Amino acid sequence: MTNFVAGKIRRAICVSFPRTASLRAMNAKFSSYSHPEVLVDGDWLQAHLRDSSLRIVESNEDVLLYDTGHIPGAVNIDWRGDLQDNTQRDYVSPQRFAEVCSKNGIAPETTVVFYGDKSNWWSAYALWAFRLFGHDKVKLLDGGSAKWKADGRPVTREKPVYAATKYPVPPKRRDDEIRAFFADTLAHSKARKPLIDVRSPGEYRGEITHMPEYPQEGVLRGGHVPGARSVPWKVAANDDGTFKSFEELKKIYTENLGLKKDDDIIAYCRIGERSSHTWFVLTYLLGYNKVRNYDGSWTEWGNMVRSPIAKGEQPG
């Protein structure tokens, strides 16, 4: 792009903040979280829009939303087109991930700040995918795009142009560390290890097979994985899409659900996007040591021949 605004962005990204300016968000609410460094608020991000060590990434359910107005300097990474294999149901290869990072000017040392629509479902999903490939320097904008715009912060339709990097191909995906598959989830169910269904109560009970106000997506059976507890993702969020406080989250997951720090936890939803939000809460805000996202989720489980299914309010 050769327009004036993009040119300004290209020049701006050459400006670095002094290294004494910490990348940690100094927000009072964040200080009680187990890993406050993974969250930023609007004030912090607006002050760091010209920080060349950052790359701001918007990732939405609505793939057209970015073009209607985004945070200045932000690039668009499509969770479907950029991060998922378009032939088989899986994530892209390490080679493809490196290509996506390279074309967006992301290097291994780049701190990537994610944000998006739907209270950060999809941006949490993208963040989880980056962690799947071993990119450690990640952050999430508390409240996502809706709060940024509601606060009257700057947006633009101009698309920035960054010099391509040579992101090294990750040696592997961390499938065995933060991702669960059908067999893992089935074993969890049989052993009655912690399983969290983060879908709506109606989906959990088996009354509907899709989110309220969403179209049917071809799942043949409704219900939940036997042994799973119903904790909808949205209980972790305030009305403005920001995360609840540490004490509120602790009451939900530690006190009410009885989760322990070293529990082996699997979360699931429909395709892994809502459960990425819960994975983020459990991993970074509450500090649970082993949390995996079952991204196959109900669109796999509900279509699998002879997969066990429970219905109703009880885990089964």
**Oligomeric state:** single chain
Compute the separation of the termini in Å: 56 Å
How many individual domains?
Answer: 2
Determine the CATH superfamily of the largest domain.
Answer: Rhodanese-like domain
Which residues form runs of ≥5 with pLDDT under 50? Answer: 1-25
How would you sum up the global shape? Answer: globular
CATH topology of the largest domain: Oxidized Rhodanese, domain 1
Spatially, the strands of the biggest sheet line up as 1-5-4-2-3
Q: What's the total helix number? A: 11
- Rounded to the nearest angstrom, the radius of gyration is 19 Å
The second-level CATH architecture of the largest domain is 3-Layer(aba) Sandwich
